[in-house]
Amino acid sequence: MAKLREWLRPPRKLLILFFLVMFPPAATLVGLGVRLLDQDRKLAHQRQSEILEHASDTGVRALEQDLAILAKRLSGPSWGSADVPEDSVYVVFGPDRILATPPGRLPYYPVGQNFRESAAEPFRELEAQEFRERNLEKALEIGRKLAASPDASLRAGALLRQARVLRKLHRLDEALAAYQSLSRIPSVAIDGVSADLLARRARCVVLEEQARKAELRWEATAIEGDLRAGTWQLDQASFLQIAGQLSRWLGADVHASAEGEALAAGVDWLYLKWTSAAPDQPGSTGQEILTAGSMPVTIFWASEAGRVTAFVAGSGYLQNHWLAELQKAVHPARACLLGAGGKAIAGDLPPAEALSAQRAATGTGLPWSVVVTGAEETSGEFAARRRVLLAGLAAVLVLVVAGSYFIWRSVTRETAVARLQADFVAAVSHEFRTPLTTLRQFNELLAEEEDLPAEKHRSYHQAQTRATERLQRLVESLLDFGRMEAGSRPYRFERLDVGALVKDVTDEFRGEAGTRGFSVECSPDSCACPVDADSEALARALGNLLDNAAKYSGDSRRIEVTVRHADSAVSIAVRDYGIGIPLPEQGRIFQKFVRGAAAKSQGIKGTGIGLAMVRHIVHAHGGSVRVTSAPGAGSTFTIVLPAKE
Q: How large is the greatest C-alpha to C-alpha distance in the chain, in angstroms?
């Protein structure tokens, strides 16, 4: 029962009552709030799913309309270069050639261009003189006559052979001129290669042999420019061969761009499909998406009898047009286009846990699958309600936690104060008991021994006097501290020399402490240290510090007192070499009733108000008091007061 009564002391009862009253409704409210939030989340999730499903359908319709316009255009008139977007190419497959618009978009074609070949019969006599008779001059004369022919194919063949003979005669400048004339005949093929391309490459070979680097670089650069502009319709093998030669002549790698190679791969795929054993029926259309390297290519075509028109789009057009159209249709959701195998080819693939809606290519007829993703919280209504609920729950939790904290803090403080008060009562009782016991003992001795010698009688009275004075000092100390706490202790300030006051108090304390073996050294400043102070109160504060120094000196018997005047302040320091004070206790020892752990463990007497009284007195004088200490190294208490002129 005693333990139960101890547990149910008023502060603890208050804490228990608070929890009993507040916790059940708070817990119920929090539980209801959590359930409401969960229902709200599910409702928002369902609503968002409906929004995404609707957005994906809207996006699919937008793409279908765009592709329907494209299919209609494929069946119409041919496109001009200005009609073809960037990173795309318009292709027409005909019976005798492949036409790409604009020409520079494709680095190479499925097949080379079919030019009119130069006949071999007119050149039999020239070649007989060149190879069989070894009469190069005669062969050169025949070649010049044939080169004057109005027939372009005959003239091209003659110029080629004429340049060859001139090279054998080491008349290279004339050979270069012949090749230059040949380069002006672009519509004739020689061994399947355009005559102008053949002539310009031959000029580079001659310039390379002559080490004419500047002219070689100029000629090779011009060929590279025409190659990238699509001047010649080359197959892949021819393109790679010419690119290799140009790389050697220019000293830099010449190759097709990744976008151009992807478009060329798409055109090649469509050409193989067109020329396969099962061609599309007249009037049919189709679409396909494939990956060339790491770049997606989308192909749309329309076929008629003997003719196919196609639009081949690269990754840039896919990203900047179709994905942009889809994103515009589904805004504010995010869109993504998937290719074969579910790989994202435009836009970012959403994370697995993200809320999304998908329309597969097999169900929509589009070449891509469409994915639309939205954030969980997109509805302003749901988000606002959720914020209100969370704010309410947070307020309840803060109220419960704050109330619990303040009650716990109040209980802790009251418990600490009660403990300090109990320690103070015990200490004061002990302090009172010692002189009272002395008085009682000597009174009993005086009463029992009537015929005491005068000397013994006198010593008994002196002991009673000392005990009475100790009681008086203790009572006066308690009364003064009570007046200080109440703010009713009057101070009589007057100008005085602190050095002289400290010397007087130290001399008086030295006479008392000397009997216990203490050595008290006083070192006042050589100059005057004037302050405005209550001499009695300041002397009491210094006396308390000296008394504490003696109590906590341990085995040491040395105490030092110094007075210094510097920087418009006077400092009084009392140093001992005793047990010292741990750092965690140094901030608490100036509070009333607080005593250090060492004082309790070593049985050092005290009431716990000495240092609190010192702090009151010093603060009343406009000064401060501080301590510097370490366990086993002693302590130094310093009073700092404002100096006066």
A: 176
Pick from 207, 238, 255: which residue ends a domain? 255
pLDDT digits (tens, 9 = 90+) for 552-603: 888 888 889 998 888 788 889 999 998 888 887 877 777 776 776 666 666 6
Best CA proximity match to 155, nearest among 176, 185, 186: 185
Q: Give, for 572, the enclosing helix (H) or strand (E).
A: strand 569-576
Output the domain CATH number for residue 547.
Answer: 3.30.565.10
> How many structural domains are present in the chain?
2
Mapping DSSP to helix (H, G, I), strand (E, B) and coil, where does residue 638 land? strand
* C-alpha distance from residue 427 to each of 40, 197, 473, 587, 598 (Å): 64, 116, 15, 21, 15
Distance CA 645, CA 565 (A): 11
**Would you say 598 and 559 are in contact if contact means Cβ atoms under 8 Å apart?**
no
CA 445 to chain CA mean position, Å: 86
Summarize pLDDT for 228-267 with one digit per residue, the tens: 888 888 888 889 999 999 999 999 999 888 898 899 999 9
Domain assignment of residue 536, given as a range = 490-642
Rounded CA-CA distance 204/47 in Å is 70
Q: Which residues contact 247 (CB under 8 A, 6 or more apart)?
A: 253, 254, 255
Residue 124 lies in a domain: yes
Count Cβ atoms within 10 A of the Cβ of residue 46 and give its class: 0-12 exposed, 13-18 middle, 19 or more buried: exposed
Task: Provide φ and ψ at 580, rounded to 5°.
Answer: 75, 175
Q: In this predicted model, which residue has the larger pLDDT, 148 or 293?
A: 148
Residue 370, SS3?
Answer: strand
Is residue 627 in some structural domain?
A: yes
Cα distance between residue 270 and residue 290, in whole Å: 11
β pairing state of 344-346 and 334-338: antiparallel
Among 546, 572, 543, 550, smallest CA distance to 480 is for 543
Which of 13-17, 306-310, 612-616 is predicted least confidently?
13-17
pLDDT digits 0-9 by tens, 457-496: 666 666 667 667 666 666 665 566 566 665 656 788 888 8
297 domain residue, yes or no: no
CA torsion angle for 312, 318, 324, 329 (degrees, to 10)?
70
Cβ 23 vs Cβ 396: under 8 Å: no
Of the residues 217, 237, 255, the one at which a domain ends? 255
Global pTM exceeds 0.90: no
User: Torsion over CA of 476, 479, 480 and 485, rounded to 10 degrees?
Assistant: 160
Q: What is the edge-to-edge ordering of all strands in the sheet holding 307-313?
A: 98-101, 88-93, 307-313, 295-304, 285-292
For residue 224, the domain's CATH number is: 1.25.40.10
Q: Is 430 within the bounds of a domain? A: no
CB neighbour list of residue 527: distance below 8 Å, 6 or more residues apart: 565
Distances (CA, A) of 522 to 26, 142, 303, 572: 66, 135, 118, 10
